[in-house]
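Weekend entry, working from home. Most of the wet-lab plans are on hold until the incubator is repaired, so I used the time to fold the two sequences that have been sitting in the queue since the last round of cloning. Logging both here for the record. First:
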Amino acid sequence: MSKYETLDQLILDRIGETPAPGLLTPATPVPFLLLSANSAISAESERLAQIEKTEARHGKSTAPGWRIINRRLQALRKTERIRSTSRGWVLVDEAA
């Protein structure tokens, strides 16, 4: 169980909120700005940033909250659960 599991699920839920009812209707991409502005995602990323700060030497944080969100987006992209478009992030269609 990863410490990022909650954040990953929040991100996937937010990206998945935009419906794609038909095969010809693509999902509405969610830009990074809307993901980082989401209060639940932002709070969880800041909580993880505080954990990283306490684990780091001399209390220096390795990354701010927005950078943790970006790292998780890239990790989800590498596992092919989401993909990036020129307009934002969308879920990968498992049927395709």
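Second, folded right after the first finished:
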Amino acid sequence: MRLPHPRGPVSTAVVDRLRRVPDDFTAGPAPADSDRPVLHDDDLQLTLWICYELGYRGFDDVDPSWEHSPFVTGLRGQLERRWEAGLRDLVPPIDVEPEDVPKALVELVRADDGPSLAKFLQRRASTAQFREFVVHRSVYHLKEADPHSWAIPRLSGAAKVALLEIQSDEYGEGRLDRMHSELFRATMRGLSLDDGYGHYVDDVPAVTLAVSNLMSFFGFHRRWLGATLGHLAAFEMTSSLPNRRYGNGLRRLGGDEPATRFYDVHVEADAVHEQIAAHDLCGTFARENPSAATDVLFGAACGLAVEAEFGRTLLTHWGNDRSALVTTGGAEPADLVGAVAERFDGGQSASAERDRTPAGIDDLAVR
């Protein structure tokens, strides 16, 4: 993976700097004030994503020594202050007694009123729309579980055991063919998409990057351990039914077993993970760390809010017959995702599929 195309003055300066020999002396660019909401600020979200990615797999055209350089850590800290302020504007404080955390998580999830992207994909989405959805999700699913794994060395006792039980499933219990990121790669290949790690980062909007950045923001900081666990709990508690709908939607469009397996596996696994995450993980952690109980709810609420805005963004664009993918680096937005394979046309001809597919996400070719 190489550095993505910049989307503003800060990401331009960062991309230019990271291509040079590492140094520790020159300060990073001062992020300019912006009146754009943080979830839709492309320059902010892309720069954060680049800074975080240096701590995951990095970039082929960037020296690994940049990861902990003052340039990167200083700039990231400045950006994170704005990111955190935006999250606090998005999610008001939630007071909770430590012993009530599992119940509060259930109530928070039950009260979530985000748009049903899963229901649309199950019943109404065209093949091209489903494939676009997979492109968006690839930013996270190709490193699924990694952001939450930062919490493992920061826990002990029963809470650590609970997290390891969840993460063991996510990583396939030692079997490569069962690892969830590998199952998602199979879904991408089944939809004629490029399954390379980070391949579509240039093509997704700020809100898609924000979904991934939220996990990294919490995961990279020990002070946000409670929020990391709360985010994971909300993720698991809202996963089983949507994944059932995703799988059924893909089958409706002609998806075969290898393509739908990623979603089918999550239906059963996340139904179990839901209880472990709410009670054994977050409940235990809150009782042992009473001062962090509100952080657990904050992380969960942020996860739900960002996911809701992600779904709202896709459905709004699709409702207006447009793709939510973006144009960067001079690429044409209609050339991002690959021609629809005949077996995924839902029994219709390619021309009939095009007739009911929004412009911009139809003849999208694997690059």
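Plan for Monday: verify the second prediction. The two ends are 13 Å apart (CA to CA).
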